[in-house]
Write a structure and sequence with these properties.
heterodimer, A: 107 residues, elongated, B: 696 residues, mainly alpha, two-stranded antiparallel ribbon, 4 strands
Chain lengths: 107, 696
């Protein structure tokens, strides 16, 4: 099998790296768009895990992992659209995309 | 003599109504005027013609029914039946006893029904003319109609309670009508005085009713032998002793007489009747001369078996003796006062009191027929006199002082003629006039009274006084020359026509009560009366008639001698006043009975009111203030608890909640990345816990 060439741990390691990069980006960037990009990265790390676990799982012939991944990508696309829409709307209002300036929802 | 006659009743009595007859519809006689009164009460003030039509129409209906009933009783009598038809029904039932109401048709009620409806109708018609310029014409007819209905209710009542209801209703309408011109303070005061004075008698009357009910368990007069004034109940009442050697029957009789004395203006409860003349003259004629004041006499006549219970043949009873003495005293007492009055209506009012005294004395000494005959004849001629006086007052532009009148026989010929007839009937002018025969019946009974002769002499003296004061009045009003300001004028036909009809009755009614043909007495006592000339030949009767005639002529002559030519002018003293100034002043001031009451009853009442006022302010007021003070103290304590304890703990709890919320709200700083950080940290912590806990 192909799996013998690359072990599962390698995929998981890549995914973990990807997730960490995404999380770091989302937590450290001030620009809302960059935060969104970070979130996309974390989502894709999750997708990669889904595919990897499906491929090395007990029933690789059932296409379940693929289905999850495609759903997740579709949801991420929708989420990205909503997120970008919000950012544009906030930008129109406040003329900024700086997240630290957007604290009007504070308690 | 009289008692033996009454014992010889051979007529068969009827006790119930049989097939639907007039008795079944007798209730309509009072009901229709009362309903008419209710309808008139709803009318607008401007609907004058409708109001008068309704009142007169309803009373005409009652008159027709009453005449049918009267004819029915007379027809029964001519066929040898003593008609006494009753309709009784249970009104309230409580426990084992009932309160029954009902009505009765017997000679007594039939005669009264005919008299009240006829006189009432004539006075209603007269009121159209007399009240023509009054703006409250509608209200007047409403009250008048209510009065007529209530009075007719009294007349037909077969139950003490129904009698009392009607009795109180006539008292109420009397109050309303005396105070009809309530904007006059004197009229308002007179109305109150009449109401309160009669109330004194009514309290005793009510006590008598309650006692009678307690003793006999029924308030019906006649109930096929089970009524309260029939043999069974009377025997029980006689057997029951009350205080002061009286039987229960005697005590109840006295209590009922106290009620009758209040209504019929007997001494010492007569003080309201002269003041009641503040009401419109038709009211004086209808209520305070012809009908309502006669209700007391009618009451005694109605409960006569009770008043008479326990009398031996030819004897008398305590209640009847009291009735006689009070009546005879009132007759003379009021006639004396009438001599010195100057208000045309007040003279007639005292005359009414005096004549009511005659009726009471007649009842006390001679029986129902004697008293009732005078009641009926008096109703006609006194209504005639009052309406004549009203016509005079009307013609003289509302002047009531006889000293400011004079010579009216030329200006008001028809009024003069009818007034003279009424005056001669009242004086008891021999042979032609009804008053002579009815008064002679009373004098004859007084002559034969077994207890004392004094009432006889009192009543004869009263007859002299009656003739004297009426001659004085007529001399003042109709003879001499005009002493007023504007000249008088004759009243319209709507006023004089009823006068003429009443004048006819004032003469003609004598025909049914002569000794030769005592139709009325026979009718009331249910005996056959043949026409016999030798009725006049009874021992002493002609002598009595002679005495009474002499007295009347003496009174007339004396009056004519003193006042016939030219009565004194208003500013001059009266002829008698010049001769006897001191007695005159006493009589003019009504023998100071009002002042006596002012010093005793009213002063006591005022004193008692002040005591009550003091008690109210100091004692009861103090108690109330104390209770209020205690509650205020309690409220202050409550407030302290609330503010310092309940509120404190609650406020503290709220503060804690608020500060806790403040702390929590710090976390929500509105920065998305903070949330994300917390999230990431939490996830990391969670994963760390999971890993740590899954370690072997």
């Amino acid at each position: 099998m192909m799996g013998q060439a690359t072990p599962l741990a390698a995929y998981l390691l890549v995914a973990a790296l990807l997730f960490s990069i995404g999380l770091a980006g989302a937590l450290t960037r001030r620009n809302a768009i960059l935060v969104l990009i970070g979130i996309e990265l974390m989502l894709n790390a999750a997708n990669l895990n889904l595919i990897a676990f499906w491929r090395y799982g007990p029933h690789p012939e059932l296409l379940t992992g693929m289905m999850f991944a495609i759903f997740s990508i579709a949801v991420a696309a929708a989420e990205a659209a909503v997120g970008l829409g919000l950012v544009i709307s906030i930008h129109r209002h406040a003329h900024t995309t700086d997240l630290d300036a957007m604290n009007r929802m504070r308690g | 003599m009289l008692m033996q006659e009454m014992a010889s009743v051979s007529f068969q009595p009827t006790t119930n109504c049989g097939p639907p007859g007039i008795c079944d519809y007798l209730w309509l006689v009072p009901a229709v005027p009362i309903i008419a009164s209710g309808v008139i009460g709803l009318l607008k003030q401007q609907k004058r013609r409708t109001a008068a039509t309704l009142a007169i129409g309803s009373l005409s209906f009652s008159l027709v029914l009453a005449l049918v009933a009267f004819v029915h009783v007379v027809a029964g009598w001519t066929h040898g039946v003593a008609v006494r038809e009753t309709v009784n029904f249970t009104w309230i039932q409580f426990g084992a006893s009932n309160v029954d109401l009902g009505w009765v048709l017997d000679p007594l009620s039939a005669v009264m029904l005919a008299m009240v409806t006829l006189v009432g109708l004539l006075i209603f018609i007269y009121s159209i003319g007399y009240m023509a310029h009054d703006e409250n014409y509608t209200r007047f007819f409403c009250f008048l109609s209510l009065f007529a209905g209530a009075m007719l209710g009294v007349v037909i009542a077969n139950s003490m309670l129904l009698f009392f209801m009607g009795w109180e209703l006539v008292g109420l309408t009397s109050y309303l009508l005396i105070g009809f011109w309530y904007q006059k303070p004197a009229a308002a005061a007179a109305a109150k005085k009449a109401f309160l004075t009669t109330r004194v008698g009514d309290v005793f009357f009510l006590l008598g009713i309650v006692w009678l009910f307690a003793q006999t368990g029924t308030l019906l007069f006649y109930n096929n032998g089970a009524g309260s004034i029939e043999h069974g109940a009377l025997a029980a009442l006689l057997a029951q002793p009350a205080a002061l050697g009286l039987s229960a029957a005697g005590a109840i009789g006295l209590l009922i007489f106290a009620g009758a004395a209040g209504k019929s203006g007997q001494f010492p409860l007569h003080v309201w009747l002269p003041d009641a003349m503040e009401g419109p003259t038709p009211v004086s004629a209808l209520i305070h001369a012809a009908t309502m004041v006669a209700a007391g006499v009618y009451l005694i006549a109605r409960v006569y078996p009770l008043m008479q219970a326990g009398a031996l043949a030819g004897g008398t009873t305590t209640p009847l003796t009291v009735v006689t003495w009070v009546g005879a005293f009132t007759a003379v007492f009021a006639a004396l006062i009438a001599v010195a009055q100057n208000d045309i209506k007040r003279i007639l009012a005292y005359s009414t009191i005096s004549q009511l005294g005659y009726m009471m004395a007649g009842l006390g000494m001679g029986g129902v027929a004697v008293g009732m005959f005078h009641l009926i004849t008096h109703a006609f001629f006194k209504a005639l006199l009052f309406m004549g006086a009203g016509s005079v007052i009307h013609g003289c532009h509302e002047e009531q002082d006889v000293r400011r009148m004079g010579g009216l026989r030329a200006d008001m010929p028809l009024t003069f003629l009818t007034y003279a007839i009424g005056m001669l009937a009242l004086c008891g002018f021999p042979l032609l006039f009804s008053g002579f025969w009815s008064k002679d019946g009373i004098l004859e009974a007084a002559q034969h009274w077994s207890v004392a002769k004094t009432p006889f002499y009192m009543l004869v003296f009263g007859a002299l006084l009656t003739a004297f004061y009426m001659t004085r009045q007529v001399g003042y009003v109709f003879f001499g020359t005009w002493r007023g300001k504007k000249p008088a004028r004759e009243s319209p036909a709507v006023i004089t026509a009823p006068l003429t009809i009443l004048a006819f009755f004032a003469m003609a009614l004598g025909l049914i009560g002569t000794p030769a043909w005592p139709w009325f007495r026979g009718f009331i006592e249910s005996r056959a009366v043949p026409f016999e000339w030798h009725g006049f030949m009874e021992p002493g009767l002609l002598a009595l008639m002679g005495t009474s005639t002499v007295m009347v002529f003496l009174g007339l002559g004396l009056g004519w001698r003193l006042y016939g030519g030219q009565a004194p002018k208003p500013e001059q003293p009266d002829v008698l006043e010049k001769a006897l100034p001191l007695p005159w002043a006493w009589l003019r001031d009504r023998l100071y009975i009002d002042e006596l009451y002012g010093f005793t009853v009213i002063a006591f009442y005022g004193w008692w009111a002040r005591v009550a006022d003091w008690l109210d302010r100091r004692v009861w007021g103090g108690v109330v203030a104390g209770v209020a003070w205690a509650f205020r103290g309690w409220a202050h304590f409550s407030r302290f608890l609330d503010m310092n304890w309940v509120d404190g703990s609650f406020d503290k709890g709220c503060e804690e909640l608020a500060s806790g919320g403040g702390l929590l709200s710090r976390v929500q700083n509105g920065r998305v990345q903070t949330y994300l950080r917390i999230l990431a940290f939490s996830v990391v912590a969670l994963v760390a816990i999971l890993i740590w806990s899954s370690l072997p």
